[in-house]
Amino acid sequence: MRHQTRVSNIAISCVLAAFLLLLPGLVPVLVPWATLDGGALSAHAAEPVTFSTELAHDRETAGGIIVLWIDPAPEYHAYAHEPGVDTRPTVVSVHDRSGTPLDLPVLYMPGEPLDDPFTPGRIVNAYGPKTPVFVKVPALLAGGDVIVRTSLLLCSDRNCQPVRHDIVVTLPGEGAFAALPDAASRPWRGKLAQAVPGRPVAGAVAPGMTGTPSAGAVGDGAAIGMGGVTPTPRDAAPGTGGSLPFPSSTGVDTTATAGNVARGEEEQAQKAVSGIVSVSPEGTSSGVAVSRSVSGAAQESPAWSFAPRYFAPELEVSGLGKALLLGLLAGLILNVMPCVLPVISLKLSGFIATSGAPGDEGVRRRAFREHNLFFAAGILVWFVVLAGILAVAGLAWGQLFQRPGVLFGLTLVVFTLGLSMFGVFSLPVLDLKAGTTGSPRAQAFMTGVVATLLATPCSGPLLGGVLGWAFRQPSSVLALVFAFVGLGMASPYLLMAARPGLVRFFPRPGAWTGVMEQVVGFFLMATSVYLLTILPAALLLPMLVTLLVAAFAAWLWGTWAGPGASSVQRIAVRCVAVALVGMTVAWALSPPADEARWEPFEATAFRDMLGRQPVIVDFTADWCPNCKLLERTTLNAANMARWQKAYGARLVRVDLTRDDPVAQALLHSLGSSSIPVVALFPTGLLRNAPLVLRDLFTADQMDEALERAFGPAGQPLQP
């Protein structure tokens, strides 16, 4: 027996040594995304958006139009100037050389409706590839330079990053605007007609005036907090949220267009330029912008340059050796962190199940050693897989649990595990009860994976410095560090595998085992409740419905597909149970149907939108039963979404639940004093002659009214 133990210990040591030696070489093969510069984790990755400008002549004002093209990478989008939700909008402002914001008209595209990848069920307005923003420049600015400053939040379905970008545009000399291409002849003239004025920039001064903008006048629209981007209030003017400007990683672009740059400025800029030529999307020679990236002192917004001091500098990581050592210790400490309480219950349940293996002491030892080895293997495999997931998705430690789909699936798994511990049914692979049949190796491995998955959001001493260093390294180094963290977490189980005689300290199963299993079940149910608290609000009800269906499916499985049932019955019942859960999950995670995007009534914004886009105004109140009936029938979400898309209309809801003199004045101006009332405001000359529908009406009547007010669908009336 002693000889067998020694051989087993040598085998365990050899397996671990081979794993650690081969890991650096296997990672680039198994993980093709691994690159020498860190791939997606590089701290110096370029912003996935490009900016370019062109100039055109505006015959209406005898001035010019600066067209700023915002072109996110294919998988990215930017939130529109009016995003429809509380988030950081796209804000474009124009400044003179001193940085003073100028009060110039900035026209934005409305944005395209998009399912928010971070909040299922929420629709946002976003900018996709090649989105123009138009700035009207008066003739009195001819021959000067202006800075076009863009602040936006760039997001993919994996992450977001704030971007701040400056372009210096040199305007043509006096009288030279007329030599530019006419805006009416440009391919983007249709988009110019759709663009609407944006919100004014706080502290802006009229062109030609002198003044100092107020603090925070150059709007970034969001503050940078510990957790990323902190939205400013939705009704605040851009830049007045008391936020710190996010430093640009690209510097300031100096752009020469259709004019000459002063020789002194040209020579100064040449000292720090990299020749980047940005051609207008149409590919014409007129309006081509030649951009040069100016670095260092030329930047008008300061780059952060801090010298942080750490409370425990000896725990900060500066090299691979220290990272591996501290990662090993951090993984070991993870086993005793308070947040792994549900994980401890899983581990104890597995130990008790294996300690009761039938047979003599030698059989118990072999079962105990085997369980710990495969449990440790599950931990190690999960940590290496986790490194790959985080690298590919560009996520940080614990950020995986910010994905609603991951939280949804994990809650379902933990809940069904709890049902299994209460004896409702038996999971085919992951069954932690004593005396279960099936492969003990597979069950031990899967228990290790699930236990480590639940512990992933936890952090502990030493781990912060290790991860902070590791996430700035190449993917292969990141995987190696994660493997050592996993090795540290698995070390107690590897120790027990090397000393299987420790099984004698675990009691044999008895009547008390059932009580222990139920206690573990309560721990798992408590974990499910915790996971429910961090689910997005839009997924809470679908999650509860899914858990109810899962409980019913588990009851079917345990009652009608047990050992006493025929094989045909077992297969049929299990297929029905799995199908029930699968269909419910598909329903719960399915994207919502198109929803109407109502805007609350705000007098200034409403006055600005009149005449520029068709507007549908609905007067309602909580105390008005006919209003609520109308909203559930004629004005339901499907109809409003259809009409909004067909006519390109904006939807404004005026809530009269509480006394609002401004809203009441608007109602009285339409010749009404009672509700429900719906007013249709067309564009152009008829913008002050809205078509009004009173009381209850049908969808057909609404269709007729819309066509009369706005013209045929897709062909709105011209001004």
TrEMBL record:
Task: Tell me, in one coarse class, where this protein mainly resides.
Answer: membrane
Q: Which UniProt keywords apply?
A: Cell membrane, Cytochrome c-type biogenesis, Membrane, Transmembrane, Transmembrane helix
Q: Does the keyword ATP-binding apply?
A: no
Which residue ranges traverse the bilayer? 323-344, 373-400, 406-432, 444-471, 477-498, 510-532, 538-559, 571-589
Q: Which CDD domains match?
A: DsbDgamma
Looking up Gene3D superfamilies in the UniProt record yields: Glutaredoxin (3.40.30.10)
- Gene Ontology molecular function, alphabetical: protein-disulfide reductase activity
Region described as Disordered: spans on this chain: 232-252
Q: Name one GO biological process term.
A: cell redox homeostasis
Q: What Pfam families does this protein map onto?
A: DsbD_TM, Thioredoxin_7
Domain annotation Thioredoxin: ranges: 579-711
User: InterPro entries recorded for this chain?
Assistant: Cyt_c_assmbl_TM_dom, DsbD_gamma, Thioredoxin-like_sf, Thioredoxin_domain
Is Transmembrane helix set as a keyword in this record? yes
Q: Which GO terms describe its cellular component?
A: plasma membrane
Q: Where in the cell is it found?
A: Cell membrane
Provide the topology term for how it sits in the membrane: Multi-pass membrane protein
Q: What is the name attached to this protein's record?
A: Thio:disulfide interchange protein, putative
